[in-house]
Amino acid sequence: MSVDVYLNFNGNCREAVEFYAQVFETENPKIMTFGEMPPNPEYPLPEEAKNLIMHTRLNISGSNVMFSDVFPGMPFIEGNNISLSIVSENIDEIKSQFDKLKEGGTVGMELQETFWSKCYGQLTDKFGIGWQFNFGISEM
């Protein structure tokens, strides 16, 4: 059993997923657009939806993270209701990924020692997604 995360974007999903693939050095994502769906004559696809991402996913440190653009006209609330947590035993990897994600984003807490971790930090990236980085596993 696994818990996967699904992130929605407002027309910039392709840019976001390609950015994350580079940050976390994953395979290039397989992308399906709304235009690649089988057509349904009862619900014709609006032209502006054809190149938007219907679904893609990345495997980040053993976890599936799925991505999609919202369909035109659907409500969108930028990422303040989600945060992804990266737990790693590799401090150099944590520092590298943190530094890459903070470009264009907002750091909530720089990487630092806490009572639960030798290296912890949190940020919101340029796409509005919250990230937490944690070295090792809490002793609490």
UniProtKB/TrEMBL annotation:
InterPro entries: Glyas_Bleomycin-R_OHBP_Dase, PhnB-like
Domain PhnB-like: 6-132
Gene3D superfamilies in alphabetical order: 2,3-Dihydroxybiphenyl 1,2-Dioxygenase, domain 1
Name recorded for this polypeptide: PhnB protein
Source organism phylogeny: Bacteria, Bacillati, Bacillota, Bacilli, Bacillales
